[in-house]
Amino acid sequence: MVTANLPAFASPGSRIDVTVSSLGDAQSLRGGTLVMTSLTGADGQIYAVAQGSVVVSGFNAQGQAAQVTEGVTTAGRVPSGAIIERELPSKFKDSVNLVLQLRNPDFSTAVRVADVVNAYANRTFGQGIAEPRDSEEIVVQKPKSADLTRLMADIENLVVVTDTPAKVVVNERTGTVVIGADVKVSRVAVSYGTLTVQVNETPQVIQPAPFSDGQTAVQPQTDIQAQKTGGALNVVEGPDLQTLVAGLNSIGVKPDGIIAILQGIKSAGALQAELVLQ
Questions:
Q1: How far is it, in rounded angstroms, from Cα 167 to Cα 153?
Q2: Alpha-carbon distances, residue 117 vs 155, 156, 159, 164 (angstroms)
Q3: Rounded (10°) CA dihedral 233, 238, 239, 243
Q4: SS3 267
Q5: Which sign, positive or negative, has the C-alpha torsion 240, 191, 175, 168?
Q6: pLDDT tens-digit series, residues 154-182
Protein backbone atom coordinates (compact mmCIF):
# COMPACT_ATOMS: atom_id res chain seq x y z
CA MET A 1 0.00 0.00 0.00
CA VAL A 2 1.42 3.35 -1.07
CA THR A 3 -0.02 6.61 0.25
CA ALA A 4 0.93 10.29 0.12
CA ASN A 5 -0.51 13.68 0.99
CA LEU A 6 -0.88 16.08 -1.92
CA PRO A 7 -0.05 19.58 -0.61
CA ALA A 8 -1.93 22.70 -1.61
CA PHE A 9 -0.73 24.56 -4.72
CA ALA A 10 1.30 21.55 -5.84
CA SER A 11 2.62 21.97 -9.38
CA PRO A 12 3.67 19.28 -11.87
CA GLY A 13 7.29 18.26 -11.46
CA SER A 14 7.52 18.88 -7.72
CA ARG A 15 8.23 15.98 -5.37
CA ILE A 16 6.46 14.75 -2.21
CA ASP A 17 7.18 12.05 0.38
CA VAL A 18 5.54 8.64 0.12
CA THR A 19 4.58 6.14 2.84
CA VAL A 20 4.84 2.43 1.97
CA SER A 21 3.18 -0.32 4.04
CA SER A 22 2.88 -4.05 3.61
CA LEU A 23 -0.57 -5.55 3.10
CA GLY A 24 0.65 -9.16 2.69
CA ASP A 25 2.75 -11.54 4.76
CA ALA A 26 6.06 -9.69 4.34
CA GLN A 27 8.18 -9.70 7.51
CA SER A 28 10.31 -6.66 6.66
CA LEU A 29 10.59 -3.95 4.01
CA ARG A 30 14.12 -3.02 5.08
CA GLY A 31 16.36 -2.61 2.06
CA GLY A 32 13.42 -2.85 -0.33
CA THR A 33 12.69 -0.77 -3.40
CA LEU A 34 9.32 0.57 -4.46
CA VAL A 35 8.62 -0.06 -8.14
CA MET A 36 6.88 2.59 -10.22
CA THR A 37 3.46 3.10 -8.65
CA SER A 38 0.73 5.49 -9.78
CA LEU A 39 -1.08 7.42 -7.03
CA THR A 40 -4.71 8.18 -7.72
CA GLY A 41 -7.11 10.51 -5.95
CA ALA A 42 -10.71 9.95 -4.90
CA ASP A 43 -11.83 10.98 -8.40
CA GLY A 44 -9.79 8.16 -10.00
CA GLN A 45 -7.33 10.51 -11.68
CA ILE A 46 -3.56 9.90 -11.43
CA TYR A 47 -1.91 12.82 -9.63
CA ALA A 48 1.57 11.44 -8.91
CA VAL A 49 3.93 8.57 -9.71
CA ALA A 50 6.18 7.13 -6.98
CA GLN A 51 9.27 4.94 -6.95
CA GLY A 52 12.54 4.63 -5.04
CA SER A 53 14.28 2.99 -2.09
CA VAL A 54 12.23 2.44 1.07
CA VAL A 55 13.68 3.82 4.32
CA VAL A 56 12.69 1.67 7.32
CA SER A 57 13.63 2.72 10.86
CA GLY A 58 12.88 -0.61 12.58
CA PHE A 59 14.78 -3.87 12.34
CA ASN A 60 14.11 -7.56 12.89
CA ALA A 61 16.71 -10.17 13.90
CA GLN A 62 15.72 -13.81 14.26
CA GLY A 63 17.52 -17.00 15.17
CA GLN A 64 16.48 -20.56 15.86
CA ALA A 65 15.44 -19.91 19.47
CA ALA A 66 15.09 -16.14 19.80
CA GLN A 67 13.81 -13.11 17.92
CA VAL A 68 14.39 -9.38 18.46
CA THR A 69 12.16 -6.77 16.84
CA GLU A 70 12.41 -3.01 17.28
CA GLY A 71 10.01 -0.58 15.66
CA VAL A 72 7.85 -1.40 12.66
CA THR A 73 9.62 -3.22 9.85
CA THR A 74 6.61 -3.52 7.55
CA ALA A 75 6.21 0.23 6.97
CA GLY A 76 8.62 2.83 5.65
CA ARG A 77 8.96 6.06 3.71
CA VAL A 78 10.41 7.11 0.38
CA PRO A 79 11.65 10.69 0.84
CA SER A 80 10.75 12.81 -2.19
CA GLY A 81 9.77 9.57 -3.89
CA ALA A 82 6.76 10.80 -5.87
CA ILE A 83 6.66 13.23 -8.77
CA ILE A 84 3.43 15.17 -9.22
CA GLU A 85 2.03 14.63 -12.70
CA ARG A 86 -1.28 16.55 -12.61
CA GLU A 87 -2.02 20.07 -11.42
CA LEU A 88 -4.83 20.66 -8.95
CA PRO A 89 -7.95 22.14 -10.56
CA SER A 90 -8.09 25.17 -8.21
CA LYS A 91 -6.47 28.56 -8.87
CA PHE A 92 -5.57 30.77 -5.92
CA LYS A 93 -5.51 33.98 -7.92
CA ASP A 94 -9.06 33.40 -9.19
CA SER A 95 -10.56 33.47 -5.68
CA VAL A 96 -12.81 36.38 -4.77
CA ASN A 97 -12.22 36.12 -1.04
CA LEU A 98 -10.22 34.19 1.55
CA VAL A 99 -11.63 31.83 4.17
CA LEU A 100 -9.35 31.43 7.17
CA GLN A 101 -10.00 28.28 9.22
CA LEU A 102 -8.82 27.95 12.81
CA ARG A 103 -7.06 24.72 13.72
CA ASN A 104 -8.62 24.97 17.21
CA PRO A 105 -12.11 26.49 16.86
CA ASP A 106 -12.75 29.27 19.37
CA PHE A 107 -15.09 32.27 19.18
CA SER A 108 -12.70 34.59 21.04
CA THR A 109 -9.81 33.73 18.76
CA ALA A 110 -11.96 34.14 15.63
CA VAL A 111 -13.06 37.63 16.74
CA ARG A 112 -9.47 38.60 17.56
CA VAL A 113 -8.26 37.46 14.14
CA ALA A 114 -10.97 39.52 12.43
CA ASP A 115 -10.12 42.59 14.53
CA VAL A 116 -6.40 42.35 13.73
CA VAL A 117 -7.06 41.88 10.01
CA ASN A 118 -9.52 44.81 9.96
CA ALA A 119 -7.02 47.04 11.77
CA TYR A 120 -4.45 46.24 9.09
CA ALA A 121 -7.01 46.74 6.29
CA ASN A 122 -8.12 50.12 7.66
CA ARG A 123 -4.53 51.35 7.59
CA THR A 124 -3.84 49.94 4.11
CA PHE A 125 -7.14 50.07 2.20
CA GLY A 126 -9.25 52.37 4.35
CA GLN A 127 -11.94 49.76 5.07
CA GLY A 128 -12.50 46.53 7.00
CA ILE A 129 -12.34 43.30 5.03
CA ALA A 130 -12.67 40.50 7.64
CA GLU A 131 -15.79 39.08 9.25
CA PRO A 132 -15.94 36.10 11.65
CA ARG A 133 -18.49 33.60 10.41
CA ASP A 134 -18.42 31.25 13.40
CA SER A 135 -15.92 29.80 15.85
CA GLU A 136 -13.84 28.26 13.04
CA GLU A 137 -14.02 30.46 9.92
CA ILE A 138 -13.14 34.08 9.16
CA VAL A 139 -14.10 35.41 5.72
CA VAL A 140 -11.75 38.00 4.22
CA GLN A 141 -13.06 39.98 1.23
CA LYS A 142 -10.43 40.89 -1.35
CA PRO A 143 -10.23 44.62 -2.09
CA LYS A 144 -10.30 45.52 -5.77
CA SER A 145 -6.88 47.16 -5.67
CA ALA A 146 -5.19 44.35 -3.75
CA ASP A 147 -3.18 41.42 -5.02
CA LEU A 148 -4.45 38.24 -3.39
CA THR A 149 -1.02 36.68 -2.93
CA ARG A 150 0.44 39.80 -1.32
CA LEU A 151 -2.68 40.20 0.80
CA MET A 152 -2.32 36.66 2.15
CA ALA A 153 1.39 37.23 2.79
CA ASP A 154 0.61 40.34 4.86
CA ILE A 155 -2.21 38.65 6.77
CA GLU A 156 -0.16 35.59 7.76
CA ASN A 157 2.47 37.87 9.37
CA LEU A 158 -0.06 39.58 11.66
CA VAL A 159 0.26 38.70 15.37
CA VAL A 160 -2.90 37.47 17.11
CA VAL A 161 -3.20 36.60 20.79
CA THR A 162 -5.09 33.31 20.81
CA ASP A 163 -7.49 32.14 23.50
CA THR A 164 -6.37 28.82 24.98
CA PRO A 165 -9.21 26.61 26.29
CA ALA A 166 -8.88 25.27 29.82
CA LYS A 167 -8.32 21.52 29.48
CA VAL A 168 -6.87 18.70 31.54
CA VAL A 169 -5.79 15.69 29.46
CA VAL A 170 -5.12 12.41 31.26
CA ASN A 171 -4.02 9.05 29.88
CA GLU A 172 -4.76 6.24 32.31
CA ARG A 173 -2.72 3.69 30.34
CA THR A 174 0.55 5.59 30.59
CA GLY A 175 -0.21 7.68 33.67
CA THR A 176 0.30 10.95 31.79
CA VAL A 177 -1.32 14.13 33.11
CA VAL A 178 -1.23 17.37 31.08
CA ILE A 179 -2.74 20.48 32.69
CA GLY A 180 -3.33 23.64 30.67
CA ALA A 181 -2.17 27.05 31.86
CA ASP A 182 -5.72 28.40 32.24
CA VAL A 183 -6.97 25.53 34.42
CA LYS A 184 -8.30 26.61 37.82
CA VAL A 185 -9.53 24.62 40.79
CA SER A 186 -11.93 26.02 43.37
CA ARG A 187 -11.13 25.53 47.05
CA VAL A 188 -11.71 21.87 47.87
CA ALA A 189 -10.49 19.35 50.47
CA VAL A 190 -8.93 16.11 49.16
CA SER A 191 -7.87 12.95 50.93
CA TYR A 192 -6.35 10.03 49.06
CA GLY A 193 -5.68 6.58 50.48
CA THR A 194 -5.26 3.01 49.30
CA LEU A 195 -6.11 -0.35 50.83
CA THR A 196 -3.66 -3.23 50.27
CA VAL A 197 -4.73 -6.78 51.09
CA GLN A 198 -2.08 -9.53 51.07
CA VAL A 199 -3.04 -13.22 51.30
CA ASN A 200 -0.36 -15.85 51.99
CA GLU A 201 -1.05 -19.57 51.85
CA THR A 202 1.45 -21.68 53.93
CA PRO A 203 0.03 -25.21 54.31
CA GLN A 204 1.68 -27.38 56.96
CA VAL A 205 2.25 -31.14 56.92
CA ILE A 206 1.11 -32.92 60.12
CA GLN A 207 2.78 -36.22 61.00
CA PRO A 208 0.97 -38.83 63.14
CA ALA A 209 2.34 -39.93 66.52
CA PRO A 210 4.92 -42.79 66.47
CA PHE A 211 3.52 -46.34 66.45
CA SER A 212 -0.02 -45.07 65.84
CA ASP A 213 -2.48 -45.82 63.08
CA GLY A 214 -2.69 -42.16 62.10
CA GLN A 215 -2.07 -40.83 58.58
CA THR A 216 -0.03 -37.92 57.34
CA ALA A 217 -2.28 -34.95 56.60
CA VAL A 218 -1.93 -31.42 55.26
CA GLN A 219 -3.34 -28.62 57.36
CA PRO A 220 -4.11 -25.39 55.47
CA GLN A 221 -2.91 -22.12 56.97
CA THR A 222 -3.84 -18.73 55.58
CA ASP A 223 -2.37 -15.39 56.65
CA ILE A 224 -4.28 -12.25 55.64
CA GLN A 225 -2.73 -8.82 56.11
CA ALA A 226 -4.63 -5.63 55.39
CA GLN A 227 -2.72 -2.36 55.21
CA LYS A 228 -4.40 0.97 54.64
CA THR A 229 -2.29 3.95 53.71
CA GLY A 230 -3.41 7.49 53.27
CA GLY A 231 -2.53 11.01 54.21
CA ALA A 232 -4.39 13.66 56.05
CA LEU A 233 -7.08 15.84 54.53
CA ASN A 234 -5.40 18.39 52.26
CA VAL A 235 -6.85 21.61 50.94
CA VAL A 236 -6.25 22.10 47.22
CA GLU A 237 -6.83 25.44 45.51
CA GLY A 238 -5.32 26.47 42.21
CA PRO A 239 -5.91 30.03 40.97
CA ASP A 240 -2.97 29.46 38.60
CA LEU A 241 -1.06 26.51 37.18
CA GLN A 242 1.90 26.71 39.57
CA THR A 243 -0.30 26.77 42.67
CA LEU A 244 -2.42 23.89 41.37
CA VAL A 245 0.61 21.69 40.68
CA ALA A 246 2.07 22.51 44.10
CA GLY A 247 -1.22 21.60 45.76
CA LEU A 248 -1.41 18.25 43.97
CA ASN A 249 2.22 17.46 44.79
CA SER A 250 1.62 18.21 48.47
CA ILE A 251 -0.72 15.21 48.67
CA GLY A 252 2.21 12.94 47.76
CA VAL A 253 0.58 10.51 45.33
CA LYS A 254 1.67 8.96 42.06
CA PRO A 255 0.30 10.03 38.65
CA ASP A 256 -2.42 7.36 38.71
CA GLY A 257 -3.58 8.80 42.04
CA ILE A 258 -3.55 12.32 40.63
CA ILE A 259 -5.78 11.10 37.79
CA ALA A 260 -8.29 9.72 40.30
CA ILE A 261 -8.14 12.96 42.31
CA LEU A 262 -8.76 15.09 39.21
CA GLN A 263 -11.75 12.95 38.30
CA GLY A 264 -13.12 13.37 41.82
CA ILE A 265 -12.55 17.14 41.74
CA LYS A 266 -14.34 17.30 38.38
CA SER A 267 -17.29 15.33 39.80
CA ALA A 268 -17.43 17.71 42.75
CA GLY A 269 -17.70 20.66 40.37
CA ALA A 270 -14.49 22.28 41.59
CA LEU A 271 -12.42 21.78 38.41
CA GLN A 272 -12.93 24.78 36.15
CA ALA A 273 -11.77 23.03 33.00
CA GLU A 274 -12.67 20.28 30.54
CA LEU A 275 -11.39 16.86 31.57
CA VAL A 276 -10.31 14.78 28.55
CA LEU A 277 -9.70 11.05 29.13
CA GLN A 278 -7.59 9.17 26.60
A1: 32
A2: 7, 10, 10, 20
A3: 110
A4: helix
A5: negative
A6: 998 999 988 877 888 888 777 788 888 77
